[in-house]
Amino acid sequence: MLGSEWMSRLASNDPKDEVMESMTGTVGLPESRPQEKARPDSAGGTEPLLKLRGVSKHFGAVQALYMVDLDLPAGQVTALCGDNGAGKSVLTKCIAGIHPPETGEMHWEGRLVHIRTPRDAAHLGIETVYQDLALADNLDIVQNMFLGRERLSGGVFLNEDDMERAAATTLASLKVTTVRSIRQPVATLSGGQRQAVAVAKAVMWNSKLVILDEPTAALGVAQTKMVQDLVRRLKDHGLAVMIISHNLNDVFAVADRIAVLYLGRMVAQDSISAFDRQNVVDYMTTGESSRSASGRRA
Length: 298
Hints:
The structure is a single chain. This protein is an alpha/beta fold. The chain has one domain (2-11, 48-286): Rossmann fold (3-Layer(aba) Sandwich), CATH 3.40.50.300. The chain has helices at 2-12, 18-21, 88-96, 118-124, 141-145, 160-173, 191-203, 221-236, 248-254, 277-286, and strands at 50-59, 62-72, 77-81, 103-108, 111-113, 126-129, 152-153, 157-158, 209-213, 240-244, 257-262, 265-271. The chain has a six-stranded mixed sheet, sandwiched between helices. A four-stranded antiparallel sheet has the order 2-1-4-5, with no helix packed on it. A two-stranded antiparallel ribbon has the order 7-8. Helix 1 packs parallel to helix 6 and helix 7 packs parallel to helix 8 (221-236). Residues 4-27, 30-44 and 293-298 have low confidence and may be disordered.
């Protein structure tokens, strides 16, 4: 069976594993994704993969986001921080096409785009892994990874072999080696393994930006390290990653940049070197910090 065959090959750590070489389509991550040539922006800097300018959103009388600017560069991990009610979920759903913003602009690879539906986001290469992971416990790993996107043979029957190969390729490219079989039910997986499957499912479809909502919530130390390693591998493959987290240990372990929301406003955004844990807490709780002279204020 392909499932057991894949696990035995993973254990050998052979970089020329034939399972990795068997897929040549668009599904799955390559060993390393060549970085696209960076586009200069109007200010002479480097154009981020996704750029938001002046994004606002309200629900009735509640102003959830107000004139938010955000840059998400390719090949970097951006941590989106903020207290409960700061607007992190709303901003994530604006990017994911669930809540289209009412004002502002979104630029994708330097082009003005309008993301009105999750299908629009997926078409661009934006995938979101929400905190609940959206996995079906009664299905196995392969079935979950292709849920709603099943491959057919002859237009009628499921192409199980093809889906197994594609799932194996993607998991192997992310170095997910702790699962016993890709045909084991998701209900039998640990929290870290579930997170790995959810991320692998997100990156299968030529994703360029992966958004992770609280990926280490309720995980133990070992499982948290597993997820952190997974985030680093996404970055190494050239993807842009936005991680939403309250855990500053995770943020400082994996992030290249930090953006902080406070009551719907972006109050700070800069490289990780411009912050320490205390001024991130200051920004999250008060919207300002006297300790950060180098952080760029939004």
